[in-house]
């Protein structure tokens, strides 16, 4: 049908379905075309010209040579003194290279994922185990060779590696097996008998409480406060950071303009990265500078982390958003109900009575202080980019801001158990 995909008036659509049209009906079609059709063609041509002006992205790729070049051993590493010719091959101590495979990168990839090769599966599942449970079954994920640590549970490591291969290299399948296991679902409580018998948790008798990675500390705060923008892909983002940091990196001045739209609140994986000057909030929580490959990130505890969570512009904005979320979503609840709702958002569990009492004491003290200092409350909210509307109880909102700031700074909020 010629009307498929077109949004036409019913009368015009019915005329296009017929072949025996009267003179008046032909005239109606002509008038519709002159009024609507030409405008549509004009818009289409305009969009076509705009598309032609767009810059196309080019991705560089590697391509195999039609005929591989001859490679030589270089005597003392000097390319001017070549030695014997060598060919591409694989270590003879491992499974043999199939003669039907091409001796190029494609052949190497297929050799690596051959079910006869135990290494790829073992290395991969060991790293996933370490990401989920704090440390791998082999505690040196960067070295599973003779110089690395032996596996604490070799049978489990082998079984997971075989499952990974036999399940079609399914990441989801292995992750599901790990997170639904009794080992992963253990409590992170650390009884005295375990502290004496197994302080490093080699026996996997408990789960381990550990801080979130640097990027997830920020992402978690955005999610709790309701600011997280879940858009995918696109160019790097520029979240707020202290002014002037880029001006002194590399010996030249570079302007850093923080995003002011929804990109300001996107996930940490999209944060712009400058190796000579990475984002200070990520560095404070042990994110590597990416100048070298880092398999294991260290975990340190420094005063800079507390200062970043308390005073960083991004954290201040998250606290303000969480305060508004508590007030909005708990509008029908009393003070204790609002506190309980905020704590559940932050740590994902029901609060204890002592926690509600302490937070209520903090809220009451902050409100009394801001009622005597409305200018301070206004200044605080403006620094957090909170729009203050007429009729807003500034003292109450500023007091809930302080409660929200405490919730986002709890050790339990930035840790996983």
Report on this model:
The chain has 15 helices and four strands. The chain has 417 residues and is mainly α. It has a two-stranded antiparallel ribbon. Strands 3-4 form a two-stranded antiparallel sheet. A hairpin with a 7-residue loop joins β1 and β2 (82-86).
Compile the SSE list and pairings.
Blueprint: H1 10-16, H2 23-53, E1 71-74, E2 82-86, H3 105-112, H4 119-133, H5 154-166, H6 171-179, H7 192-197, E3 210-211, H8 214-225, H9 280-284, H10 303-311, H11 313-329, H12 335-347, H13 353-371, H14 374-383, H15 394-409, E4 415-416
Antiparallel strand pairs: 1-2, 3-4
Radius of gyration, CA atoms, in whole angstroms: 31 Å
Strand order of the largest sheet: 1-2
Please count the helical segments.
15
Instruction: Characterize the largest beta sheet: strand count, sense, and whether it forms a barrel.
Output: 2 strands, antiparallel
Report the strand count: 4
Mean of all residue-level pLDDT scores: 88
**Pairing-aware structural class of the strands and helices?**
mainly alpha
Terminal Cα span: 61 Å
Task: From the structure above, extract its key features.
417 residues, mainly alpha, two-stranded antiparallel sheet, 15 helices, 46% helix, 3% strand, disordered N terminus
């Amino acid at each position: 049908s010629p009307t498929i995909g077109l949004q036409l008036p019913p009368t015009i659509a019915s005329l296009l379905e017929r072949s025996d049209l009267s003179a008046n009906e032909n005239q109606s079609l002509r008038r519709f075309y002159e009024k609507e059709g030409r405008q549509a063609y004009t818009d289409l041509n305009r969009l076509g010209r705009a598309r032609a002006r767009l810059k196309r992205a080019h991705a560089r790729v590697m391509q195999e040579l039609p005929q591989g070049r001859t490679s030589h051993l270089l005597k003392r590493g000097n390319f001017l003194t070549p030695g014997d010719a060598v060919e591409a091959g694989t270590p003879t101590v491992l499974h043999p290279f199939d003669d039907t495979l091409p001796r190029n990168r494609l052949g190497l990839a297929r050799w690596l994922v051959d079910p006869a090769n135990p290494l790829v599966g073992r290395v991969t599942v060991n790293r996933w185990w370490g990401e989920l449970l704090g440390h791998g079954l082999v505690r040196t994920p960067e070295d599973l060779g003779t110089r690395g640590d032996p596996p604490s549970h070799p049978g489990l490591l082998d079984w997971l590696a075989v499952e990974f291969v036999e399940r079609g290299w399914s990441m989801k399948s292995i992750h599901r097996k790990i997170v639904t296991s009794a080992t992963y679902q253990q409590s992170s409580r650390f009884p005295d008998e375990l502290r004496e018998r197994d302080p490093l948790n080699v026996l996997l008798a408990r789960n381990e409480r550990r801080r979130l990675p640097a990027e997830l500390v920020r992402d978690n705060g955005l999610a709790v406060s309701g600011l997280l923008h879940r858009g995918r892909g696109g160019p790097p983002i520029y979240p707020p950071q202290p002014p002037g940091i880029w001006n002194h990196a590399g010996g030249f001045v570079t302007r850093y303009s923080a995003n002011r739209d929804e990109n300001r609140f996107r996930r940490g994986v999209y944060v712009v990265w400058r190796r000579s000057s990475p984002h200070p909030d990520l560095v404070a929580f042990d994110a590597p500078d990416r100048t070298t490959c880092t398999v294991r990130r260290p975990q340190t505890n420094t005063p800079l982390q507390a200062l970043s969570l308390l005073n960083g512009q991004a954290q201040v904005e998250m606290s303000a958003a969480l305060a508004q979320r508590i007030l909005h979503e708990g509008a029908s609840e009393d003070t204790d109900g609002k506190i309980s709702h905020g704590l559940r958002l932050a740590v994902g569990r029901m609060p204890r009575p002592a926690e509600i009492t302490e937070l209520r004491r903090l809220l009451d003290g902050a409100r009394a202080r801001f009622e005597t200092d409305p200018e301070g409350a206004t200044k605080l909210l403006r620094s957090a980019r909170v729009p203050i509307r007429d009729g807003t109880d500034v003292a109450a909102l500023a007091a809930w801001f302080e409660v929200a700031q405490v919730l986002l700074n709890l050790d339990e909020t930035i840790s996983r158990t």
